[in-house]
Design goal:
The protein is built from 10 helices and no strands. By secondary structure, the chain is an all-alpha fold. Helix 6 packs antiparallel against helix 8. The chain is globular, with a radius of gyration of 24 Å. The protein starts with a helix and ends in an 18-residue tail after the last helix. The relative contact order is 0.11.
Length: 287
C-alpha cells in the first residue's frame, strides 16, 4: 500500500510538472513572438542610420537614445519625472474609482435613475478630458489639482460604463436562484451582482488606467515642471529629439507595466471567472 501511495505521488508530481512546463514554454514563446517586431525595427533603424539614410538630427539612432536614457537615469532625473507622473496617476485614478464604482453600481441596481443621469453623462462622455484642461487651470490653478482633475475625468467613464454594464447584464437566472434561497438585498449584491460584474469592472479599471495615463502626459506637456510629459516638452524646446524619444519610450514601458500589474491582479483575484474578450468591450473616446 505504501509503495502504491508513493507511486501515485510520483505520478501526480510528474503530471504537475508536465502541466507546468508547457505553460512556461508558452509564456516564453509568447514573449519571443512579441519581441520579434520591435527588435527587427530597432536593428533596421540602427542599420539605416549607420548608412546615413536617416537624418540623425531628426531621427536619432536607437544607440543614441539608449545612451541618453542611461544618462538621465544615472543622474536621477528620470526617476524624479516618473515619480511625479505616477503620483498624479495614483491620486487621480483612486478618486475616479471612488466616484465611478458607486455610481455604476447605483445606476445598474436602480434602472429608474438612469433616465435622469444618462443624458448628462452621455454629453460629458463625448468631451475629451484635455479639452477641459484650460478651464481646470482657471478653476484649480496650475499646480497638481488641475492635472489630477484631468485624470479623474478621463478615467471616470471607462470605469463607470463597464461597471454599469457588468451590473445590468447579470444573468436573471442567478437572481431568481438567489431569491429562491431567500438572500437579502445585501446578500444579492455581494454574492450575485459583484461576482458577475467583477470581470467587466476589471476591464473598466484597465481602460481607465490607460486613459488616465495618456491624458496625464498630455496635461504635463501643456503645463508642468515635472513629469514624463514635461520631459518630452523639454526635449522639444531644447531641440533634442533623443530626449523626446526617451520620454515616448518611458511612457510606453510604464503604461505597459501598469497594465501588466492589473492583468496579474485580475488573474489573481478572478481565477475562475470567464475571461472577458477585450475586443467585445465597446471603446470610448480617448482623452
Amino acid at each position: 500500500m505504501k509503495a502504491s501511495a508513493n507511486h501515485k505521488k510520483d505520478k501526480t508530481s510528474t503530471m504537475t510538472g508536465a502541466i507546468r512546463q508547457p505553460a512556461s514554454k508558452r509564456f516564453c514563446l509568447k514573449l519571443l513572438q512579441g519581441l520579434v517586431l520591435p527588435l527587427f525595427i530597432l536593428v533596421l533603424w540602427e542599420f539605416l542610420s549607420g548608412l546615413g539614410w536617416l537624418n540623425i538630427y531628426l531621427i536619432p539612432p536607437p544607440s543614441q537614445i539608449w545612451d541618453r536614457l542611461l544618462t538621465i537615469a544615472g543622474n536621477g532625473e528620470l526617476l524624479r519625472h516618473i515619480g511625479a507622473s505616477l503620483y498624479r496617476v495614483v491620486c487621480g485614478f483612486s478618486l475616479a474609482l471612488c466616484i465611478a464604482l458607486p455610481l455604476g453600481f447605483l445606476l445598474g441596481l436602480v434602472p429608474a435613475v438612469r433616465g435622469y443621469l444618462s443624458p448628462c453623462l452621455n454629453f460629458f462622455q463625448q468631451v475629451p478630458g484635455i479639452a477641459w484642461f484650460t478651464m481646470f487651470i482657471l478653476w484649480l490653478g496650475i499646480d497638481e489639482a488641475s492635472k489630477i482633475a484631468i485624470i479623474v475625468y478621463s478615467a471616470f467613464f471607462p470605469i463607470f460604463l463597464n461597471t454599469l454594464h457588468g451590473i445590468a447584464s447579470t444573468d436573471p437566472k442567478l437572481k431568481e436562484v438567489a431569491y429562491t434561497f431567500g438572500l437579502s438585498r445585501w446578500g444579492l449584491i455581494t454574492r450575485v451582482y459583484l461576482p458577475s460584474a467583477a470581470p467587466s469592472v476589471f476591464v473598466g479599471m484597465r481602460l481607465g488606467l490607460s486613459f488616465s495615463w495618456r491624458s496625464l502626459v498630455a496635461a504635463e506637456m501643456l503645463g508642468a515642471s515635472r513629469g514624463i510629459g514635461y520631459l518630452i516638452q523639454e526635449g522639444r524646446e531644447m531641440a533634442q529629439p533623443d530626449l523626446m524619444l526617451v520620454g515616448v519610450l518611458v511612457i510606453g514601458l510604464t503604461g505597459l507595466s501598469l497594465d501588466f500589474i492589473f492583468r496579474y491582479l485580475e488573474k489573481r483575484f478572478l481565477p475562475c471567472q470567464e475571461k472577458v474578450d477585450p475586443h467585445e468591450v465597446p471603446t470610448w473616446q480617448i482623452s
